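Assemble and predict.
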Amino acid sequence: MPGALRRSISLAVVLALSHRAGFSQAPPPAKLAASITRIFGAAVRVDSLRVDTSTVLRMSRADSLLGFASVGNVIGKDQPITFLVAIDRDDRLKDVDILVYREPYGGEVAYEPWRKQFRGKTAADSLRVGKEIRTISGATISVRSVTLGVKALVADLTRWHQSGAIK
Amino acid sequence: MRWAPTVLAVALLAVATSFAHAQERTTVGGYGEAQYTNATGPNTPGQADLRRFVIYLAHSFNDQLAFRSELEVEDAKVEPDSKAGEVEVEQAFLDYRLRDWLTIRTGLILVPVGFLNETHEPTTFNGVQRPAFDSDVIPTTWRELGAGLLGQIPGGAGLSYRIYLLNGIKAEGFSAEQGIREGRQEGQNASFANPSITGRLEWARPGLKVGGSFWYGGSANGEPGLGTGAFSAPVALLSADARYDRGGASLRAEFANISITDAAAINTAFGTGVGSRIAGGYAEAAYNLLALLAPSSSQKLTTFVRYEQYDTQASVPSGTVQDGTLARRITTIGLTYKPIDNAVFKGDYQFLRNRSGTGEGEILSLGIGYEF
């Protein structure tokens, strides 16, 4: 229980800090934490790494590497969509999460049946809307943007991992 | 592992700050369509029209509060003494986003009936004109003033909802040919003598979206003989729709049923021939030929066929004579070429038929459309 208590306190502090700093279009830390817990499980160690101008989260448990994650933004019809991409230690896509969606229509990209199409893909795989990634009517602009964003972020994470920039 | 949560929290703060960017954001966009139509017949020369020119303006004040609008010019210009041409605000609303499952929407809102009313950009449908059903039965682009709630239904089942309280419509504008269309108030000094309640439920899967909508409201607007209650001269609309895509193929369909209980009194009051029931729908099948001919291409050359069948006098009250030409059957075949997703060149040929077999014809249409 102390762990759980400490965790909620830490998150509260982060929430308060980020709110006071006015990062209104950043990923809400609580959502980010929930996403990482969902994808990598509880009691995971998270380290923050800097590569170029990007921040990469490194996930491990008992000194064993689980994978990496990073957060990106793409423009939908006119608003940024904030999403997370996680890869496992073999550079396979573990999951995609929509952290903040701001458009009036098209939020279906957050639905699990759509997101799970990305699981197991690698940077070498083709990810084309209407082919490998099926679209959702009424959400096609968001579908295209997020698919391109995921493809770019998986490519970055894979390149950094394979070059040793993150390990 | 006790220190793990602290590491997590610090890491999250680092991410939160590194991905922060400007709070406020204004965006400008637009869409439009130009059309050429040529109906068969001896005295029907071809006609070209800049059907719609729309400027889209949006502003996000922060992650929770956003303004969206569309300003439209129809038929290129507006002149006094001309029936054609309109300048209109097609949407203008504030969204206050509280949770993924709860956004409060207020202002001039698109009525969430069918799918085309809310998603009406020319790049999103086949055919130069919108389906005639989406003019004579569902009166697109239908927008009214009010407020409501929308969001995703928690649990990840792929369900989303919208429910709004909007101003009602006016029976004075109803007609035999176009049903409730000219009863819309469209945000101009709209009477709230009769409110309306409307809503929609959607279920989405990759490649599939299914929707159901309702609209219920009064239309009396204080007219003697139609009653003075909030829901006097009630109009009830139910609709269902589906869209499915797989590979190069796509299917879509919309159906609606509108009941106008007091059609007899409305026809007495205004000398019209409004049906007591308006019903019909359409189904469309399309195939992207380039999925077969040039699978690596991102361009699309789609051939489609659409069959519409609807009747704005599916039932008439006693005292109103049913007009067989209003039981319409329209078959449209055509091609849609999209070099990119946001620009479209269209051509189609329509066969207009009706139950009485009079005034039938054919129309050739060519058009362009864009969205950005």
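Chain B touches chain A through 58 residues (CB under 8 Å).
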